[in-house]
Amino acid sequence: MNIEVLKSKIHRAKITQADLNYIGSIAIDEDLMEAANLIENERVSIYNITNGERLDTYVITGKRGSGIISLNGAAARKVAVGDYIIIVSYASMDFEKAKTFKPTIIFPDENNSVK
Question: What does the domain layout of the chain look like in residue ranges?
């Protein structure tokens, strides 16, 4: 039996951009992606700490060292620049393996840099 477990989490990242005219997705600084063990096109859930909104989208690579966290397309209506969000991804794995699996969790600073 497989179950879904937390794989990666970026806790309290700050929205730096919201672009309605972009095709979609969330752009994440490449440094944060690497630190959180996320890859481009990976499905992520976004939990907006500021307003309670929740949504799913996919990751695109943002400029390394820029601190960018940009929600794009329709998702841009669910955030405002300056909002704090949690970005999570999940993985499906065998129940027994899931018991010992340790997710990657990072806590960026105010500039969305890896602490």
Answer: 2-106
